[in-house]
Every structure is written in structure tokens, then in C-alpha cells.
Design brief:
Blueprint: H1 7-16, E1 19-24, E2 29-33, E3 37-42, E4 45-51, E5 54-60, E6 65-68, H2 75-85, H3 89-98, H4 103-111
Antiparallel strand pairs: 1-4, 2-3, 3-6, 4-5
GO molecular function, one term: RNA binding
Function: Contacts the emerging nascent chain on the ribosome.
Protein name: Nascent polypeptide-associated complex protein
Length: about 110
């Protein structure tokens, strides 16, 4: 809220402007999914603000933790690395994940 403004007056002003604010109760976790990873907000407050027919969600009170997305490795890449390095597909997959999908680096690492 705005400092020095009576909360009751603020609600009246918002009502005149067609604004409505509402807090979502008992929020435990908010996750924002991206291609590179996820932003996780634990114990955040979520406030909905509706104005002129548009609703905005505001997350407040929590620092996000970034969880990097797990890389997706194509099955053909796993088979090729396993054959070239002479290892199991499980070991090839694990090494490909470690090398972030770099086939050449995975084969070199497994051939050492």
C-alpha cells in the first residue's frame, strides 16, 4: 500500500477506479517454468489485481531458487555413444548428461 494513506480510503479509491485486489490463501509453492529451468518460490504471497478486465498476479515475499532444467538426450545419440565407446546405454546416457549432450566429448570421456 501507499505510505500515509488510510487503508479504508485506499480501498475506496481502488473501487472507484474499478480495481480489485485479492490474496490467494495458503500458497505453499509457486513455480515458473522456462526452457532453461524453473524458478521456485517457497512460501510466497500471491496477490491478484483486477483492473479494466485484466488480472495481474504478483508474487511477493520470497526469493526464488533456480532449478536448472534436465537436458533431454535423444535415444539415437545414446545408442551412438554407447556403440562408439563400447559401454552400456545407461553409462552413455549418464555421460551425455554430464557433457550437456556433447556427443564427441562424451565419447572421448568414456574412451579414456
Amino acid at each position: 500500500m501507499i505510505p500515509g494513506v488510510n487503508p479504508k480510503q485506499m480501498k475506496q479509491m481502488m473501487k472507484k477506479l474499478g480495481m480489485k485486489m485479492e490474496e490467494i490463501e495458503d500458497v505453499e509453492r509457486v513455480v515458473v517454468y522456462t526452457k532453461k529451468g524453473n524458478y521456485v518460490f517457497e512460501g510466497a504471497e500471491v496477490v491478484l489485481t483486477t483492473m479494466q478486465g485484466m488480472t495481474t498476479y504478483q508474487i511477493q515475499g520470497a526469493e526464488p531458487v533456480f532449478e536448472e532444467a534436465e537436458i533431454q538426450i535423444p535415444e539415437d545419440d545414446v545408442k551412438m555413444v554407447a556403440e562408439q565407446a563400447g559401454v552400456s546405454e545407461d553409462k552413455a546416457l549418464l555421460t551425455l548428461k554430464e557433457t550437456k549432450g556433447d556427443i564427441a566429448e562424451a565419447i572421448l570421456k568414456l574412451s579414456e
